[in-house]
């Protein structure tokens, strides 16, 4: 319990550091006037003056930082000037659930499928099943997600949309779960699979390698000497031990995706998530939005790391005692 | 197949184990034969690479590297183990024949408690409830000299000392009352003081559980302390076999004699330097045509270099694979002995 609390304290400290760093990168870079960048292209002097005052760019850096944090987390009135004064924080909060739905669904698919594939390949090491599955994994890793997404769109939206196979696929875009659960599911299932493909490839290969390496461990030999069945040895002793690696890998990928890393998938499928928001902000050089999404993403990576560490405490008794 | 009570507990005949290498088969273990009586302790001695661990793994049916060929016969209570279907082998493993390993640090799965792992073995072989299994686990841990066994059962492997872990390992091996316990260098990874305790424990198993023990070691001192009979392996072949006291008094093979000479004597004058055997054992790939020990032997002559010498009987249950006794020039009995087998 103290370990969890201590980890939480560390997390807060890291978050503080991250916010300072992000602020520094965007607003305290020497040689660039943040006012002009927030204002966007062709801003009038009046607007420039207003921004300078609003963000405190005429005052010392610590004050600027405090104002920025206040605007982000307390008053939440950080506004985008490039996008006619749209408030940034509500925009992100609106986009976040879309991304969360996309990533959670994909994560569920890639975790189950890759565990099944990796375990099966390890169990049948050296056979054609093993080679076939690993080849499939490699193909999955090599396919760029935007290409796969476009192909999926081409197939399900236009070419074969009118056949019995894909007539259920709705048009691009997002339907909130509260509006229509079945529409939500139908709209997301293809993006889920497309996003999961690469991760299935990576995770199943990593898991297989891990399981094969574990098979040479002393404790696996002990398990066999105990007279356990091969399935029990593989699942209860091998897979359970591999989960330690698996979870750390998963935490990082999951966090960066929730933080906006699913950008390409979101853009291709027209899902209004954090990734697409970042993408739009980048194309219009909308500095407040970019900063806010970067901050949001960093927060998720840090939080996910903390979560992974807590899960570690449950998965690996050795870590529990080391802290 | 009914168990044959009149047959020896374990009867190994002409066990050969070949590993594929460089396009051919390399015999790691070459026609090894021995028998183990009920409630006996047999010491299997040899240097690293002499094939002693592989022999144990073959008896347990744990060799599953691709391409490995195991031939010969291993009869456990008259039942042939070589070629036994995996499912039947599994039922035997852990219940009738159990094994403890060299390094107790790595032999337990790190993510489960000791108790959980012992319960698992009990429940794999017997229909008992979780609570019954745990009760037996705690009882056996206690019998193995583990203090506060109930608490230890709830600990994770890394939380225990090496000695405790090895005791827990032995407890796990004994949890289903096996008739044969194979101990593969059970004390090598432990402190000397803990070593002695574990050896005491192994010796006492016979009285407590009626188990026979096949003790694999490279330490002649351990053999002298623990075993009724001794089997010396050299480069995958039997060099000498016989009752421990007799082998230590009158070694019939120069290799055994040299091994015994390299133990520091407990009585008498201290030698400046312990005699060592010069050279290294041949790798299984370029074993000489004759006696494998020939290149390192002080008594080597022409007769040794043509064919591997056969086992020559030297006395009751005592035999050595050496041409010297047959040629009428056996090794002299050891004069400087007195120590290893008579001291406690």
Order of helices and strands of chain B: EEEHEEHEHHHHEHEHEEHHEE
Helix percentage of chain A: over 70%
Question: Structural class, judged by helices and strands of chain B?
Answer: alpha/beta
Question: CATH H-level name of the largest domain in chain B... which superfamily?
Answer: P-loop containing nucleotide triphosphate hydrolases
End-to-end C-alpha gap of chain A: 11 Å
Task: Characterize the quaternary organization of these chains.
Answer: heterodimer
Which stretches of chain B are low in confidence, meaning pLDDT under 50 for 5 or more residues running?
Answer: 336-344
Number of domains of chain B: 2
Overall spatial form of chain A: globular
Helix/strand/pairing category of chain A: mainly alpha
Main sheet overview of chain B: 8 strands, mixed
The named CATH superfamily of the largest domain in chain A:
MetI-like
CATH topology of the largest domain in chain B: Rossmann fold
Overall pLDDT of chain B: 85
Beta fraction of the residues of chain A?
under 5%
* C-alpha termini separation of chain B: 43 Å
Mind telling me the C-alpha Rg of chain A? Answer: 24 Å
List the chains of the largest interface with their residue counts: A-B, 24 and 29 residues
CATH architecture of the largest domain in chain B: 3-Layer(aba) Sandwich
Whole-number mean pLDDT of chain A: 87
Domain ABC transmembrane type-1 (chain A): 96-312
Membrane topology (chain A): Multi-pass membrane protein
Family (chain A): Belongs to the binding-protein-dependent transport system permease family.
InterPro entries (chain A): BPD_transp_1_N, MetI-like, MetI-like_sf
């Amino acid at each position: 319990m103290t370990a969890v609390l201590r980890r939480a304290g560390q997390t807060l400290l890291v978050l503080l550091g991250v916010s300072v760093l992000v602020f520094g990168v965007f607003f305290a870079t020497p040689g660039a006037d943040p006012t002009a960048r927030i204002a966007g292209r062709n801003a009038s002097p009046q607007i420039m003056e207003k921004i300078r005052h609003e963000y405190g760019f005429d005052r010392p850096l610590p004050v600027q930082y405090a104002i920025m944090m206040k605007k982000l987390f307390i008053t939440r009135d950080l506004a985008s000037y490039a996008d006619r004064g749209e408030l940034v924080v509500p925009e992100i909060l609106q986009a976040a659930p879309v991304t969360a739905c996309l990533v959670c669904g994909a994560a569920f698919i890639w975790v189950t499928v890759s565990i099944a594939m990796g375990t099966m390949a390890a169990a049948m090491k050296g056979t054609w099943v093993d080679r076939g599955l690993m080849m499939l994994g490699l193909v999955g890793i090599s396919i760029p997600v935007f290409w796969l997404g476009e192909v999926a769109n081409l197939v399900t939206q236009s070419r074969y949309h009118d056949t019995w196979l894909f007539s259920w696929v709705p048009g691009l875009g997002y339907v909130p779960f509260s509006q229509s659960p079945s529409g939500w599911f139908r709209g997301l299932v293809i993006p889920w699979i497309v996003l999961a493909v690469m991760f299935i490839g990576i995770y199943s290969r990593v898991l297989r390698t891990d399981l094969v390496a574990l098979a040479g461990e002393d404790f696996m030999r002990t398990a066999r000497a105990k007279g356990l069945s091969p399935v029990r040895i593989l699942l209860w002793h091998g897979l359970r031990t591999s989960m330690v690696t698996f979870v750390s890998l998963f935490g990082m990928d999951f966090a960066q995706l929730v933080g906006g890393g699913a950008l390409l998938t979101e853009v291709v499928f027209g899902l209004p998530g954090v990734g697409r928001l970042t993408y739009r902000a980048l194309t219009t050089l909308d500095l407040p939005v970019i900063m806010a999404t970067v901050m949001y993403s960093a927060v998720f990576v840090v939080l996910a790391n903390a979560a992974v560490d807590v899960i570690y405490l449950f998965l690996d008794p050795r870590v529990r005692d080391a802290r | 197949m009914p168990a044959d009570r009149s047959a020896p507990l374990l009867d190994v005949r002409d066990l050969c184990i070949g590993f594929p290498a460089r396009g051919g088969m390399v015999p790691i273990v070459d026609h090894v034969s021995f028998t183990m009586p009920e409630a006996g302790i047999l010491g299997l001695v040899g240097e690293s690479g002499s094939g002693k661990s592989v022999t144990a793994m073959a008896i347990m049916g744990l060799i599953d590297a691709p391409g490995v060929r195991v031939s010969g016969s291993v009869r456990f209570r008259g039942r042939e183990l070589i070629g036994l279907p995996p499912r039947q082998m599994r039922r035997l493993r852990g219940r009738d024949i159990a094994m403890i390993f060299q390094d107790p640090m790595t032999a337990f799965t790190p993510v489960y408690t000791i108790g959980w792992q012992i319960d698992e073995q009990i429940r794999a072989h017997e229909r008992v409830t979780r609570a019954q299994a745990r009760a037996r686990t705690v009882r056996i841990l206690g019998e193995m000299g583990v203090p506060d066994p109930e608490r230890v059962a709830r600990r994770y492997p890394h939380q225990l000392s090496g000695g405790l872990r090895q005791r827990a390992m032995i407890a796990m091996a004994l949890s289903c009352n096996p008739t044969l316990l194979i101990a593969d260098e059970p004390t090598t990874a432990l402190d000397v003081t803990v070593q002695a305790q574990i050896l005491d424990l192994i010796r006492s198993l016979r009285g407590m559980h009626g188990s026979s023990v096949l003790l694999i070691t490279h330490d002649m001192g351990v053999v002298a302390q623990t075993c009724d009979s001794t089997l010396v392996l050299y480069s995958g072949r039997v060099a000498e076999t016989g009752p421990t006291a007799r082998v230590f008094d009158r070694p019939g093979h120069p290799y055994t004699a040299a091994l015994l000479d390299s133990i520091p004597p407990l009585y008498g004058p201290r030698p400046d330097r312990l005699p060592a055997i010069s050279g290294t054992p041949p790798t299984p790939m370029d074993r000489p045509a004759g006696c494998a020990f020939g290149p390192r032997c002080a008594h080597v002559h022409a007769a040794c270099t043509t064919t591997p010498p056969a086992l020559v009987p030297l006395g009751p249950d005592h035999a050595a694979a050496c041409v010297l006794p047959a040629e009428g020039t056996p090794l002299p009995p050891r004069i400087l002995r007195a120590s290893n087998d008579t001291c406690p």
